[in-house]
Design a protein that fits this description.
This protein is of the alpha/beta class. The protein has two domains: about 5-115, FAD/NAD(P)-binding domain; about 125-160, no CATH class. The protein is built from five helices and eight strands. It has helices at about 10-15, 35-45, 65-75, 125-130, 145-160; strands spanning about 5-10, 20-25, 45-50, 80, 85-90, 95-100, 105-110, 110-115. The strands form two sheets. Strands 1-8-2-3-4 form a five-stranded parallel beta sheet. A three-stranded antiparallel beta sheet has the order 5-6-7, with no helix packed on it. The longest helix has 14 residues, at about 145-160. It is globular and about 55 Å long. The termini are far apart. The model has no long low-confidence stretch (mean pLDDT about 90).
Length: about 160
C-alpha cells in the first residue's frame, strides 16, 4: 500500500511531477491529451493504462487522427478502458464507474493517477488590457476549448471586425 499520487496532464508535460511505475491516465474529453500523455509515459518507461469517458479512445477526433492514434497506442501495448468515469481514489486504488452500466470498475496497484479533465479559463491578459484597448476573448480564456473550437472563435471575431 502507499499514497496515490494525483497529478494533471500539465504537470506531466512540464515535468513537474515524477510519476510512479504504474500509471492510470483518465481522459474525460476523449481527445488527444489523454492518449498523448499515455504515449509519453510509456516511452519514458512507465506501465500505463488509459481510461476514457467515451465509447473509444479519441472519440472526439477526426477519423484519420483517431485511427492513427489507436494504432500507435496498440503498438505500445497500452490497454484502453472505455465508458470510464472517475469516481474516486484512495491509497493505491482508483475507482471508476462504467457510464453505460453504472457498475464500478476498480484499478488496484496504481502509483500515479493522471487527470486529463479539461482546462481552466486563462484570461489575465484581457483583465490587464481592460480599458486600454478593445478586447475580444476567444479560445481557452473564455472556457475550455479544443484547438478547432478556438480557431472557430477566432474566425467569428475576425469576421465581426
Amino acid at each position: 500500500t502507499g499514497d496515490l499520487q494525483v497529478v494533471d496532464a500539465w504537470q506531466i508535460l512540464r515535468s513537474e511531477a515524477k510519476p510512479g511505475r504504474s500509471v492510470l491516465v483518465i481522459d474525460w474529453r476523449c481527445d488527444w491529451i489523454g492518449p498523448g500523455i499515455a504515449e509519453r509515459l510509456v516511452r519514458d518507461g512507465h506501465q500505463v493504462q488509459l481510461a476514457v469517458n467515451g465509447t473509444h479512445c479519441g472519440e472526439s477526433l477526426p477519423l484519420y487522427v483517431r485511427d492513427q492514434l489507436a494504432g500507435e497506442l496498440h503498438r505500445l501495448g497500452i490497454p484502453i478502458t472505455p465508458y470510464a468515469r472517475l469516481y474516486g481514489c484512495d491509497d493505491n486504488t482508483v475507482y471508476l464507474q462504467h457510464t453505460a452500466s453504472g457498475e464500478p470498475m476498480i484499478f488496484e496497484g496504481i502509483d500515479t493517477l493522471v487527470l486529463c479533465q479539461g482546462h481552466q479559463p486563462e484570461d489575465r491578459l484581457a483583465t490587464e488590457l481592460a480599458g486600454l484597448v478593445e478586447v475580444r476573448r476567444i479560445g481557452d480564456c473564455l472556457a475550455p476549448r479544443t484547438a478547432e473550437e478556438a480557431i472557430h472563435d477566432g474566425l467569428t471575431v475576425a469576421w465581426a471586425l
